[in-house]
Design brief:
Blueprint (H helix, E strand, L loop, with lengths): L5 E2 L8 H14 L7 H14 L3 E5 L2 H11 L6 E5 L4 H9 L3 E5 L10 H6 L5 E4 L11 H11 L4 E3 L7 E2 L2 E2 L6 E5 L12 E5 L2 H10 L4 E3 L2 E2 L10 H10 L3 H19 L5 E3 L13 E5 L7 H10 L2 E2 L23 H9 E4 L7 H12 L4
Parallel strand pairs: 1-15, 3-4, 3-5, 6-9
Antiparallel strand pairs: 2-10, 7-8, 9-10, 11-12, 13-14, 14-16
Helix pairs in contact: 1-8, 2-8, 3-4, 3-7, 9-12
């Protein structure tokens, strides 16, 4: 049995021959950025693969969220978002000068609670920024209804959601805009990168201009944009990786089912993402360590660390506990705080060997060992 360190994730890479063919095209054309031919091919292939109307590629999903929020054209105000999330979600809105209003989550799905969102809406609310946490779908119908009734846009942080769907299609089709991450830790990677999904060509064109400083042509700049473009090299990696992502998701599913079979009946352990929901991309395997388990989450975390297993407490600490957000509206976040104190994400990647997964399972099944 291998005793090498096990990390919470491990990126997959396309065959080197595949990427070298595309890199040869870049070298031959010397077109390195500014919406080159490989990037345009990549966008078109993604639209087909994800079955979404329009894709605007960006250098990373944080810039994607910033551009998406900026494209709404609203004055600075309040953005409602979950406190149980990766810090990039709130950072994107704060960098634009918005005040952050944190809302609580549904304790079952760990996604934004629509009823708590509604009670926090004020005349200064500029957008709702939900997160499909671990690629579990938000209550999209309720959030859409609230957004429509109050005339507030809904922009989804779908960072985890590549390849995830509900009964009607990709999770990324929801909201006024949706953003997905292609970071190295995600199901699909371009090393660094991401995309904004929009519903019409006019919006896509406006987003693309914002990603290039707001430039229309050589003499016209129409908006306060920034440099959020994806390079040809990153787009080439995405083109090479795309044919293999379905296989990777299938292999992730095998790992998830094995975890579920071995861990779901342990008293005090709650597996958050059941393997039988259609449309999963098996991005992550979070567990909640409750009071009935023989040790606390943090003691179990340290036990795994001592065994060379790099599980992660995603997402801890709660964002309201960070120095830059202690002034944010944060009352009544009981479900979010409980999740942050109990969550532990276990190692999960397509080529996680069964014998290595057994090391993780053994630590949890026999906590006194």
């Amino acid at each position: 049995m291998s005793q090498d360190p096990l990390y919470v994730t491990r990126p997959t890479l396309p065959p080197r021959d595949d990427i070298e063919d595309l890199l040869r095209e870049v070298w031959d054309s010397r077109f390195l950025t500014n919406r080159g031919p490989i990037l345009q091919r990549f966008e078109a292939d993604l639209e087909r693969y994800l079955n979404v109307p329009h894709v605007s590629l960006v250098a990373n999903a944080t810039l994607g969220c910033m551009v998406a929020l900026r494209s709404l054209g609203a004055d600075q105000g309040e953005i409602i978002t979950p406190a149980f999330s990766f810090v990039a979600t709130a950072h994107a809105a704060r960098w634009l000068g918005h005040d952050i209003v944190f809302a609580d989550i549904n304790p079952k799905t760990l996604n934004l609670d629509p009823s708590d969102v509604e009670r926090r809406i004020t005349s200064r609310t500029r957008a709702i920024l939900p997160v499909h946490c671990y690629a579990n779908p938000c209550d999209v119908a309720a959030l859409a209804e609230i957004g429509a009734r109050y005339k507030i846009p809904v922009v989804y942080d779908g960072a985890h959601c590549f390849g995830a769907s509900d009964q009607d299609g990709s999770l990324l089709r929801h909201g006024d805009l949706s953003v997905v991450s292609f970071h190295a830790t995600k199901v699909f990677s371009t090393f660094e990168g991401g995309a904004i999904i929009s519903h019409d060509i006019e919006t896509k064109q406006a987003l693309d201009r914002l990603c290039n400083y707001g430039i229309v042509d050589q003499t016209h700049i129409e908006a306060l944009g920034l440099n959020a473009k994806m390079s040809e090299i990153h787009a080439a990696l995405g083109l090479a990786q795309l044919p293999y992502v379905a296989r990777d998701i299938e292999n992730r599913a095998k790992v998830v089912r094995r975890y579920w079979d071995r861990l779901s009946k342990i008293p005090g352990i709650r597996c958050v993402c059941p393997p039988n929901r259609e449309g999963q991309n098996y991005y992550s395997f979070p567990i909640l360590v409750g009071a009935n388990y023989p040790m606390s989450r943090d003691i179990l975390y340290q036990k795994l660390q001592d065994a060379g297993i790099q599980a992660r407490r995603y997402f801890y600490p709660l964002l309201t506990d960070l120095p830059m957000y202690r002034d944010a509206s944060s009352d009544g976040l009981e479900a979010a705080r409980t999740a942050a104190e109990q969550v532990l994400c276990l190692p999960l990647y397509p080529d996680l060997a069964p014998e290595d997964q057994d090391r993780v399972i053994a630590c949890i099944c026999d906590p006194c060992a």
